Amino acid sequence: MLVAGNGGLPKAVVTTRWSTAEIYLHGAHVTGFQKTGEPPLLFMSAKSAFVVGKPIRGGVPVCFPWFGPRDGDVAHGFARVTKWELVKTSAAADGAVTLNFRLPEIPERAAWKNLQTEFIVTVSDKLTMELIATNDSSTAMEIENCLHTYFHVGDIGVVTIRGLKGAQFLDKTDNGARKLEAHDALPIAAETNRVYHDTPGAMEIVDAKFRRAIRVEKSGSRDTVVWNPWTTQLMADFDPAEHKNMVCVESGNVGRNRISLAQGKTVVLKVTLDSKPL
Ligand code: TA6
């Protein structure tokens, strides 16, 4: 199940009768999911690093226990640059494969040591991911969580995102201005970086080039983040030319919807990805 991946980092490779998937222990990072006969569902930057201490660019970054930049610390939390433990793998009677990962205690992250965190990935004709955190400390903990999924699309110019109409969003390309989403089918035609608060429902990415609709079912997520860097060179490990073949539709609880996790309580963020021909 575990083999040496890019940069020699260990990864789990999963093959089912419907699909294949791969998950690196580094960040418990899903870097691949592909249904038989379909293009890959996830986008990976061709320039991604696979180095201890650096984030993998693409796939499904596990953003935890915070989202976004943090002075002097790693953006989107330390879980994504930590080596998780693969605690268990199991196969169901129908052939679905489940992998249970656990975030180990990190001595230099003592402030978070009582936040018991696991990530469960189930590979079938769908990809299901559950980020589960339990506060075993004696006080409440403020956390953000987000599965920052990079979707692979045929041509961003003929992609629309459905499920956001009527939602308010913060437009990070316009100094965080608060706006209202009017599109039933949102096109992406420029740099886009938006936090749609209070959007707990399913989303759909309609790809006219690949002639498929990707469905994002979710629970335990109040927010949806939509991101495409367009031609802005934001990061050394992402070639802006690749913006044509990706869009991030991210599910989590961020900003004003951060979670105050009470002592002894558990929070579950669950996302299921599926695709259907158009
Ligand atoms: O979610 C959008 C965003 O915060 C962008 O501002 C950009 O920084 C991007 O995330 C980077 O995401 P990644 O998970 O690849 O570090």
Global outline: globular
How many angstroms does the end-to-end distance come to? 34 Å
| Chemical compounds bound to the protein | 6-O-phosphono-beta-D-tagatofuranose
Average pLDDT taken over every residue:
97
Number of helices: 0
Rg over CA atoms? 18 Å
Main β-sheet description: 9 strands, antiparallel
Give a count of the beta strands, DSSP E runs of length 2 or more.
23
Query: Segments where pLDDT lies below 50 for 5+ residues?
Result: none
What structural class should be given to the helix and strand makeup?
Answer: mainly beta
Explain the overall architecture:
By secondary structure, this protein is mainly beta. Helices cover 0% and strands 45% of the residues. The chain is built from no helices and 23 strands. The strands form four sheets. It has a nine-stranded antiparallel beta sheet, with no helix packed on it. Strands 5, 11, 12, 14, 15, 17, 20 and 21 form an eight-stranded antiparallel beta sheet that branches. It has a four-stranded antiparallel beta sheet with strand order 1-2-3-4, with no helix packed on it. The structure holds 6-O-phosphono-beta-D-tagatofuranose (TA6). 6-O-phosphono-beta-D-tagatofuranose is lined by residues 55, 57, 61, 68, 75-76, 148, 193, 225, 227, 248, 250.
